[in-house]
């Protein structure tokens, strides 16, 4: 059937439009479809990585429980190499550092903690810095420990930082400064913090006076 005049004009207009913009539209569609495919591939890849990293982390947990330092380090290094962008890498480094510390392998413990500081998010970094300061305290590297503790931490770690500073100051026999640090830790902790009682004991052991704990509200 022959096209009428209006249909022919519409076809001519479409041909002119496609001739001018057809290639651009095609490339936009190709890019959009490519981006969608890439996103789906990335999601699938991330999910696969998470499953594989989780399985390795389970093996690491068993090695840590068995206090097998050598195996813990091997697995942790494997996780960090293959799954650096996952939380399992940071968790594995902290776990491996703990095992190394308990095995008196302080060099390896420091290496694992430094890995978290260099590669972890702000929360894991704060945890690693606190633990590294503790390792340096054990090595009697008081200046190194205090340098870390005077660095940048997330605000929610303020009490733990002050507590660890108190420990370092006691080791240096700077008792007045240690008392001030423990008092600052108690003020930041609040009465319900799980570390509150221990800090009170440490403060009183060096001749300090802990603030009175608030009385529980009377029963209605």
From TrEMBL:
Belongs to the YfgM family. It comes from the Bacteria. SUPFAM superfamilies: TPR-like. Residues 15-207 form the Ancillary SecYEG translocon subunit/Cell division coordinator CpoB TPR domain. InterPro entries: SecYEG/CpoB_TPR, TPR-like_helical_dom_sf, YfgM. The chain crosses the membrane at residues 24-42. Its main location: membrane. It is a single-pass type II membrane protein. It is found in: Cell membrane. The keyword Transmembrane helix applies. Keywords: Cell membrane, Chaperone, Membrane, Transmembrane, Transmembrane helix. This is Ancillary SecYEG translocon subunit. It holds the Pfam family TPR_21.
């Amino acid at each position: 059937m022959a096209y009428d005049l209006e249909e022919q004009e519409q076809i001519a207009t479409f041909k002119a439009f496609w001739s001018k913009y057809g290639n651009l539209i095609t490339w936009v569609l190709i890019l959009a479809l490519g981006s969608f495919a890439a996103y789906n591939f990335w999601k699938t890849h991330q999910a696969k990585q998470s499953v594989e990293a989780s399985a390795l982390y389970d093996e690491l947990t068993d090695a840590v429980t068995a206090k097998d330092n050598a195996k813990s380090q091997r697995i942790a290094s494997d996780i960090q190499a293959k799954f650096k962008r996952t939380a399992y890498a940071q968790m594995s480094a902290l776990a491996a550092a703990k095992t190394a510390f308990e095995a008196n392998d302080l060099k390896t413990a420091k290496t694992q903690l430094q890995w978290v500081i260099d590669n972890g998010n702000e929360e894991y970094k704060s945890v690693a810095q606190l633990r590294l300061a503790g390792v340096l305290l054990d090595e009697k590297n008081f200046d190194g420990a205090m340098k870390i503790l005077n660095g940048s931490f997330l605000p929610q770690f303020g009490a733990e930082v002050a507590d660890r500073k108190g420990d370092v100051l006691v080791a240096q026999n700077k008792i007045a400064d240690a008392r001030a640090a423990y008092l600052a830790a108690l003020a930041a902790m609040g009465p319900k913090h799980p570390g509150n009682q221990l800090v009170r004991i440490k403060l009183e052991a060096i001749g300090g006076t802990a603030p009175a704990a608030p009385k529980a509200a009377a029963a209605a």
